[in-house]
Design a protein that fits this description.
Layout (H helix, E strand, L loop, with lengths): L1 H10 L6 E6 L3 E4 L5 E3 L2 E3 L1 E6 L3 E5 L12 E5 L5 E6 L3 H14 L9 E6 L3 E7 L2 E7 L5 E6 L2 E7 L5 E4 L3 E3 L2 E3 L3 E4 L6 E4 L5 E4 L2 E9 L2 E3 L5 E3 L5 E7 L4 E9 L6 E10 L5 E3 L5 E3 L2 E3 L6 E3 L2 E6 L2 E8 L2 E7 L3 E11 L10 H4 L21 H9 L16 H11 L8 H15 L7 H5 L16 E6 L2 E6 L1 H8 L9 E3 L2 E7 H6 L7 E2 L8 E2 L5 E7 L6 E5 L2 E10 L14 E8 L8 E3 L4 E8 L2 E10 L19 E9 L6 E11 L9 E6 L2 E2 L7 E3 L6 E7 L10 E12 L31 E5 L15
Parallel strand pairs: 44-54
Antiparallel strand pairs: 1-8, 2-5, 3-4, 5-6, 6-7, 7-12, 8-9, 9-10, 10-11, 11-14, 12-13, 15-16, 17-18, 18-19, 20-21, 20-33, 21-22, 23-24, 24-25, 25-26, 26-27, 27-28, 29-30, 30-31, 31-32, 32-33, 34-35, 36-37, 37-40, 38-42, 39-40, 41-42, 42-43, 45-46, 46-47, 47-52, 48-49, 48-53, 49-50, 51-52, ...
Helix pairs in contact: 4-5, 5-6
Protein name: ZP domain-containing protein
Organism: Oryzias latipes (Japanese rice fish)
Keywords: Disulfide bond, Signal
Amino acid sequence: MLLPLLFLFAAAGLTDASIQFPITENTQVDTSLCPITYFGQEYTTIYINFTGEHMFVCFNGYYHPESNGDCIKAPNTESKTYFELNTEDYSFLNSVTFDVKDSINTITNDATCYLRFDHPTTFGLIAMGSQSVLWWYNPPQIIASVLVNGDVVENVPGSENWVYSDTSGCRISGFGVKPGTTRQSLDNCTSLICSNTSVSSTSSCLVKGLCTVTGPTVIDFRGQMNSVSDRCEYTLLQDQSAGFSLKANFLERRRRDVSFVDSVTLDFSQGADIQLLQGHRVLVGGSPVTLSGSVQTFNGVGLSKDQTGVTANISLNGSPVSVFFDGTTAQIYIDVPVNVKGLCADSSSSSSSRLSSDSSCQQQYVDPADDTINPTTVIAQCNILKSSPFSSCNAVVDPESYIIACRNTLNKYPAVDGLRCQFLKAYAKACQKSQSTVQNWWTAAKCHHPEPICQDKCSDHEFCGDIHGNTDCRCRAIYASQYTEQNRLGGPTVCKDNTASLTLVGCLLKENGIDYNHLHLNDKTCTGVMDPESHMLKFSFSSDSCGTEVTTNNSQVIFTNAVVTRNSSSDLITRQDKVFIEFSCSHPAPELQNVAFKIIDNSVEVVLQSGEWHYSLTMKAYSDAAQTQLLGPNSDVRLNQKIWIVLETNGLDEEVVSVVTDSCWATSGNSPSSSPRYDLITDGCANAEDGTVQVMGNGQGTSNSFSFNMFEFSGKEPSEVYLHCQLQLVVKKNNSFPLPGCLGVSPPLSWSGWGSSGPARRRRSLRYRRGAPALISMVWTP
């Protein structure tokens, strides 16, 4: 019942506690009452287990030899101990604070609590705020080990007196470093430094030779290798005294879970940066430059280009440095030792060398395994580096790192886009730098020499690869997935101001064997426009152009067009797949209930929006048939006086749609469904029982009007008259519009307009008051 008991203590919120119990088996203990900061990591749980000869107190899981845990290891052959957690023994805590500070000059905080283990060995951990101390009281021959990530940071021997060891420390590149000390990384080059206040830093030693970055792999100056697993920017080489950094950006290609070095930047604290990009392109200060085989100097950097790639030569404090980049591999050669840091100095320093502040570049993806990859074939493809003609260089440049890099990549990523040859070329280039040229290796390996590059500049979402046997710009996997996962070749239709556009992704068209020059809309003269920078193909049409078809579907008017393949009857053969990509825009529901009218303004405008297409409707009241005398706030209207109501739209194409006033009615209340109700227009026609109502131009354009004689509701004093109108939009059919039956044409079974949904409307009404003369005015109301 150990764990429930501890849980109850913790849950009770106790700040002063002394908890004791024996432990004889693997036990997990909640120590949140006394958290321990161990080499920069705070822990609130410990795991105790026994191995027969030792006892382990670990912070991140039970110990086993491959666990790489954070642990204290102590001799224990009896597989038992007695545990105590104490936060209330103030006398001991005050005393031990004095002893610890007297023994260790890196400890500045006071003790707050401790964890103690007794019998057969005695030791404990003292929590001191953001610091912690191991205390050890055993004979000299008995040694405790302090482990971080399974690595022994310190062995603490026993003594006749208490022994204290600072376990606060730093955690650098996975290594534990005690405060106020320095240790070397596994390559014995990079110094890991932890200050007295547990602030970490690193310094690098002198290096020279060749660093190769190919695919996701970095082979540093000492031949050690590591791989980049994300799509971030990293420091390959940095000399702070010279104000220089060499950076590499990694991006995905066909798979989202494999990265490749994509560009290299020479970054100067003073002067213009130089970028070496895909396709042997170079930017100096953001502007492209044209290079040749002759060396040209920019910002003190000698730049040249040949058929294999671009070379930049610089000097770091008098030491010559050569940087070569061909779009797939970067190779940095230093002939004289220099003091630098970065991935080329230590390939295991990826966390400290990562530069990208945007954490999205670190997102990990898992793509399905490629079932076309044969591991046996991969081994044969990579082991060629041990065969002739490469074997002539094996004694000078060890091929093992290049073989491992080749295998690791080709076991996940298909051998396409010249990837197999990329590793072979990198090794041959390394041999050349070491004065051991591999002759005609490309012939023996059946590789292109020089390898083909994309003639066009690829955009940011593209890379240079093979498409149906041709070298061209392919889509990067993460970018393409937003379209391919939905089985699309581009984005959604964009509808705006009676026009529509569709954008297709150029690299997806190429990968699907579609030549954009063979595509057009329903009208063959309407072709797409290719953006030369983004390689996006855009098609546009308006409601009355490019063969646009106008149809109706219950409550919508739909404008449809399609991207299709050019089809000429004169062509005897074709190598283009047939393409049919239909896209459309629609006008939804402009039903206007309560088209607003209520005294004080002389006109009302309502803006109706449908997706990105929008239009407005204006209602005005006049006192004359010529519609020149607009009724305003001070206009007089008497009972039985004729008034004219004009409904006018702006933003609709009268060649495609027309406006029909379906119905208008009056109520004594502001709700359109209130009663009593008096109909003026029904089904597009004037109320036959009211001889004063006349309807003009209904359904014959984008505006119409009607007139009636002013009235009031009987028995209402004073009487208010609210006028409500409902409109429909109808589509031209067979070069004419369906009209209401009262105009001499049989009414359609259903008009092709929109339903009643739509944005909230404002209301407008006419008010008549008894007395002479009557006053009419209009006002906006919510």
